[in-house]
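Weekly structure sync, notes
Attendees: PL (lead), two postdocs, one rotation student
Agenda item 3: pending single-chain targets
PL asked that the sequence for the first pending target be pasted directly into the notes so everyone works from the same version. It is reproduced below exactly as submitted, 301 residues in total.
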Amino acid sequence: MPIQWFPGHMNSARKKAAETMETTDVVIEVLDARLPEASHNPMINELRLFRQRPCLKILNKADLADPAATRAWLDFYNRQPDTKAVALSCKKPGDAAKIPGLCRPLAAHRGTNLKPLRMMIMGIPNVGKSTLINALLNRRVAKVGDEPAVTKNQQRFDLNAQMTLTDTPGMMWPKIAHDSDGYMLAASHAIGTNAVIEEEVATYLADLLLQRYPALLAERYKFPIEGMDGTAVIEAIAKRRGYRLKGGEPDFEKAALTLLVDYRTGTLGRISLETPDSRNAMLEAAAPASAAGENADTNIA
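Predicted structure, written out during the meeting:
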């Protein structure tokens, strides 16, 4: 089932962000280090490139991601023009404290009392923007929650006399082009639960983990994984944990949630759902299908 999620307030948030971009010097885009491109909102690129604004990409939750994959992503992003990428955990105040200094070289003409450096934090829901704001200001000013789309309005803060910071609501984009992105986003809790079927998301996650991190699955749940698919993994978790319905059948829903929570909290281990190579392979596989669809539309017309 393709996953789509674009609550009404996000459209107005996009319009407001476009207005604020005009008076912004540096865009700070917060990404989930476990799925950097899937958690990148293409609308952010459109807005900042239109205004020719440089970008600091923060691969947040790096403590939950596979270090080798994160290094590959940093290399990928740091080759892009007007872009600086760093990996950190916004829950660590020492990590967050590095951000203003990383922004300064991106807009060297700003950062004085007369011309403060104006930064704007952007990103999709639940990637840690509010946590970052609180760490930067060293006080709780932004509401933090484990549900997507907690922040719904822009807020502006003065870091000091030479720097200002605007926090924006988490923004999705109207249509998620690739089904795998929707599943990765849902697995990482960036999409509201009302828009997904968690058993399907967990099955997708289990299939992916079987391909890339089978040892972590086996270690966590203590059962052999040879010959399994994602559905079998969820059923095995239910049996292993004693999750049963009244009739004695495995409680697939409860087992699915267990897998999702173990992934989201890092209990399973340090996991990345995509790498630059896997992203390229997905896009190449999707290209023929997209071309076929466009040709079909042309023929119909």
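Discussion points:
- The chain has a mean pLDDT of 88.
- The chain has two domains: 9-167, 197-284.
Action: rotation student to compare against the earlier draft before next sync.
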